[in-house]
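SEVERITY: medium
COMPONENT: batch folding queue
REPORTER: lab tech (J.R.)

DESCRIPTION
The queue accepted two submissions in a row. Attaching both inputs and their returned structure tokens so the on-call engineer can compare them side by side.

ATTACHMENT 1
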Amino acid sequence: MSDTQQLAALINLAVSAALIMIGLPLAKQKIPMNRWFGVRIPKTSTSTKLWYDINAYAGRQFILCSIPIALAGMACSFMPITGRGPLFVAATVGPMAIFETIAITRIILYLLRK
């Protein structure tokens, strides 16, 4: 495996791990209402129950979107990535952009239903 393939894999796996570390405490409802961490919009500050409900859903979405990002990281070891050209960018930024956008869209749709 080339250095570029290793870097692409490492970036995806690191982002996946970060999303899991962010998502787990939210999904387990361990984060109380605060100003720094979680989904902080006016709607979530109206009640503690709503805060935990929305943030638990968001945490689960972050954990779910981390799975295909991790798989993309593992797939990078089989891709013919040489140099830091378009394929490198597509292999690193692409999965993050696609799956995080899906997660955020699902969170927004969930908020609109609440």
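ATTACHMENT 2
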Amino acid sequence: MPTATTSTLPEIQPSLAVDNAAAMDQFNQLLIAQFRANGGKLSGQFTGAPILLLTTIGAKSGARRTTPLGYVRDGDVYVIMASKSGAPTNPAWYHNLLAHPTATIEVGNECFEVRHRLVEGKQRDRLWDRIVAQWPMAADYAQATTRRIPVIVLERGGN
């Protein structure tokens, strides 16, 4: 019988993050296991997609939390969005980043510490356009919420 790391990931709808947090967490755990077992390669709807694992320290709990996220590259940095699939609130990992100056990311077989910064203005607009080009559903997420979806740059190295 295939394991969660070798079988194809089930298809999910982006609204799962808004509609059923427990189911989304369960799916993310499968995705994380497959990512780590296969050097960052994923199956199903994420085959070939640029995905990283972001590990933050809980703002309240102090516990390590790992979240799979889509990204785009901009030179040497990784760019992520705090979309939560268009939910009215920011994802927990975003609050964790605000509370701690560094995090860890896994990309392919690499794992390293990153500093993060929120981008605004023209840089945010330019990077948002890059995100939407790579991840077209990001435009739908922006339409689904009244908040401005944060765009975060992750740069290699700790503080």
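NOTES FROM REPORTER
The chain is about 30% helix and 30% strand.
No errors were logged for either attachment.
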